[in-house]
Amino acid sequence: MSSERPLPETITCEGVHVELTHAHLDFTSVMNTVKSPKAGAIVLFAGTTRDNFGGKPVKELQYSSYAPRALKTLFSIADATKSKHGLTAITMVHRLGVVPIGEESILIAVSSPHRQAAFRAGEEALEECKAKVEVWKLEEFGGEEGGVWRANRDGAAGIPGPVEKTVSGVWTNQD
Q1: 72 a known binding residue?
Q2: Which positions bind substrate (predicted)?
Q3: 104 marked as binding residue
Q4: pTM for this entry
Q5: Domains of the chain, CATH where assigned
């Protein structure tokens, strides 16, 4: 198996851009994808890895996905959100693999003629992403072996599991 990480996977069409990547997320490049002279507002959400969960110290998070399906789901959410809120553009980028404390795992940028629609759309896109996109996270806690697999949602129940289940954020079939 190659030690090189896969290239980012993207879908871009008519003001909608979605991406899965192993690279660090860049605020400026994501904001630039939604800038437009037609937009009077840009809202950017950055989800970061915090240092605790449920009173336990978090060492790091590892994100895994079924990329072909996750990209389609991300695009569907972004496209529907753009239409519903009359957005100028929307970009959703999710990082895979290890995301250390303080680093971003997701960036969502939206632009619209007015701020109210941009704020509503950004929050809605995030909640839909957490509820539907085929991305899972392994929470590794300080001082513990293994970790806990969770759906990518706040408060979702976890399943203890070995770290070896992922290789560079891509699900493997090892049992």
Answers
A1: no
A2: 114-115, 130, 137-139
A3: no
A4: 0.83
A5: 9-169 (3.90.1170.40)
